[in-house]
């Protein structure tokens, strides 16, 4: 017989280093052709930070993303941005880029005040055009203003840095405190089908809702959620360090199993946007949180399906089978005691 169950798990996750300085910095430069160059030490490991930082610079400057370029993770040309860890780059480096870009924007708007004979608060920069709000046809271009400024020896570049606030450091004795400037929140549901004869189980689907503050790149966020869920399932069902006589035996991918695309169930990512006041345009990181609640939700789903409470990872068909047999034995024992 096969039975289905659904399990839930929730988390909250701090952005950046725990109760430690967590700075990043960036340079943003507008060039004479109206394009923009971002220099930042953030390393893109495949998580998409290059794309996000380009988008943040474009949003801050009012440019099209396709005219913004980035140099990243080059110790010769890029400023310090800290490690690509702790789900921090969108939040921390994103703010550094935003701050630098806003400084450059101030230079453009100040010059545009004279060129367009308008107040700065009435001016708009959109898709590389600078104009008085409501009159896009009577403006000028960022390229034109940039050339004028550079002709006068005024460089259209700026540096920005950001170090997240830690409202309350950890107490040295109790460990209590508020060690992060921002937190991410998530809830995941896993649906499973368990064979009560063999203990084998299939993961039918995973629904993952994640608060990301503001999704700068929604497709990238969905990819982070989907990839994180699969990593969480690997942690929950496959990955195990096995020792024999004090020696690690799972030393390669032949013995330390990792999930592949063939192991991935349908994942339904749900992006929840609750803007973070200290984040760049309200954004927060989405790197590690998707991997965190998945295993717990899986164990809860198995319990919901067949009543077996697994207390160690990875969960295997053998562990579920043993749990089912223990439950059967306990029920038989209760039945015998009741008949007496």
From TrEMBL:
SUPFAM superfamilies cross-referenced by the UniProt entry: Molybdenum cofactor-binding domain (SSF56003)
One function term, GO molecular function aspect: oxidoreductase activity
Domain (Aldehyde oxidase/xanthine dehydrogenase second molybdopterin binding) ranges: 2-265
Alphabetical list of InterPro entries matching this protein: Ald_Oxase/xanthine_DH-like, AldOxase/xan_DH_MoCoBD2, AldOxase/xan_DH_Mopterin-bd_sf
Name under which the protein is recorded: Aerobic-type carbon monoxide dehydrogenase, large subunit CoxL/CutL-like protein
Source species of the chain: Desulfomonile tiedjei (strain ATCC 49306 / DSM 6799 / DCB-1)
